[in-house]
Design a protein that fits this description.
The protein is α+β, with helices and mostly antiparallel strands. The chain folds into 2 domains: 77 residues, Beta-grasp domain (Ubiquitin-like (UB roll), Roll), CATH 3.10.20.30; 74 residues, [2Fe-2S]-binding domain (DNA polymerase, domain 1), CATH 1.10.150.120. The chain contains 5 helices and 5 strands; from the N terminus they run E-E-H-E-E-E-H-H-H-H. A 5-stranded mixed sheet has the order 2-1-5-3-4, with helices on both faces. The chain is globular, with a radius of gyration of 16 Å. Keywords: 2Fe-2S, Iron, Iron-sulfur, Metal-binding, Oxidoreductase.
């Protein structure tokens, strides 16, 4: 390893992984180029749109700005982690059922932020949903459908938990 590379070890979508990275690489660089995970996308490159959202140790981060070196010892969750055993996560299904995506570019960030919201607040109001998702931008303007999908997912998740 050269002086501008380092090895990092972390948990990625429930699997222990390691990577040799250059110290200037972002999370987005490593996810896409090392692990072939393309769900998070760079759009604005300034951490303003949410397209590159990933969850690091339970907190959402902008993958286009967050340095990969900071992942060492962390747990990282990408949108690809929602597909458990070939079944869609209830949030993914709700987005489909409500037509809450159009071009799909922003969808991965909205899905992860919605999951994060519903884990901390299983029955959010419309205002709480809007507030939590306010850092994510949808250029196709599917906002009403996104809000509807989050509410539908919350209902389905709560019903499934009550039945279990």
């Amino acid at each position: 390893m050269s002086s501008n590379t380092m090895q990092i070890n972390f948990v990625l979508n429930h699997e222990k992984v390691q990577a040799v990275i250059e110290t200037h690489h972002t999370v987005l660089d490593v996810l896409r180029n090392t692990f072939s995970l393309y769900g998070a996308r760079e759009s604005c490159g300034q951490g303003l749109c949410g397209c590159c959202t990933v969850i690091v140790d339970g907190k959402s981060v902008s993958g286009c700005l967050y340095l990969a070196a900071a992942l060492d010892g962390c747990t990282v969750q990408t949108v690809e982690s929602l597909d458990a055993g070939g079944s869609l996560h209830p949030i993914q299904q709700a987005f489909i059922d409500c037509g809450a995506f159009q071009c799909g570019f922003c969808t991965s960030g909205f899905l992860l932020m919605s999951k994060q919201l519903l884990e901390s607040n299983p029955d959010p109001s419309e205002a709480e949903i809007r507030n939590h998702l306010s850092g994510n931008l949808c250029r196709c303007a599917a906002y009403p459908e996104i809000i509807q999908a989050v509410r539908l997912a919350a209902s389905r998740i709560n019903t499934a938990q009550q039945e279990a």
